[in-house]
Specification:
A hairpin with a 5-residue loop joins strand 16 and strand 17. This protein is mostly beta strands. The chain is 0% helix and 49% strand. The radius of gyration is 25 Å and the shape is elongated. Strands 2-9-8-5 form a 4-stranded mixed β-sheet, with no helix packed on it. The protein has a 4-stranded antiparallel β-sheet with strand order 10-12-15-14, with no helix packed on it. The chain has a 4-stranded mixed β-sheet with strand order 11-17-16-13, with no helix packed on it.
Length: 183
């Protein structure tokens, strides 16, 4: 300090770590980020403001009602930065029925209980065993209902499929099982 006319020397900043690293929080939850290292004060920012907001001077993140991941950046007074990610988790939707067995060609509806969001869903189907040979059932979404149409069932044994239903607005999702054939 004496060699600098009595002013405190500011050492160079060598890196910033943000804690906690990569937290996962629920929708509308809060998380406080703290920067370590570097030279205070810090300024916090968020890469995706559609999932939440962050207070630049305190690092307090508030999640909105949409699931997703964003990068949190802290910049110190010398311009050095550090990053981490924050993930806002989707809500698990309740699907009814949770499972169904179809032994002949036909239809099955799976209904999602939408907690918030758009009230509209997207649905998809995947084969649980990739070696299966039965024709893949078709799916169609209408409001909160995923309609599954089965053209054929196995001639012996069973094949299982997973129906994934996702709220198109906020990313909430749930799944159900569909078994084709006689168990």
């Amino acid at each position: 300090d004496l060699e600098n006319d009595g002013y405190a020397l500011v050492s160079p900043s060598f890196g910033i770590t943000i804690i906690p690293q990569n937290p996962q929080i629920l929708k509308t939850g809060n998380q406080t980020f703290t920067a370590i290292g570097g030279v205070t004060p810090y300024t916090y920012s968020l890469s995706a403001t559609d999932i939440g907001t962050i207070v630049p001077v305190t690092g307090v993140f508030t999640a909105l009602a949409i699931a997703g991941t964003a990068t949190v950046t802290a910049v110190d007074s010398t311009g050095v930065s550090g990053t981490t990610t924050v993930t806002v988790l989707p809500t698990q939707l309740v699907i009814a029925p949770g499972s169904a067995v179809i032994i002949a060609a036909g239809n099955q509806d799976f209904t999602a209980t939408i907690i918030s969001g758009s009230g509209a869903i997207a649905c998809s189907i995947s084969r649980d065993d990739p070696s299966g040979t039965t024709t893949m059932p078709a799916v169609a979404a209408n409001a909160a209902v995923c309609a599954v149409t089965v053209a054929a069932v196995p001639t012996s044994g069973t094949e299982t499929f997973t129906i994934l239903i996702t709220d198109t607005q906020d990313g909430d999702h749930g799944s159900a099982k569909l078994t084709l054939g006689a168990p």
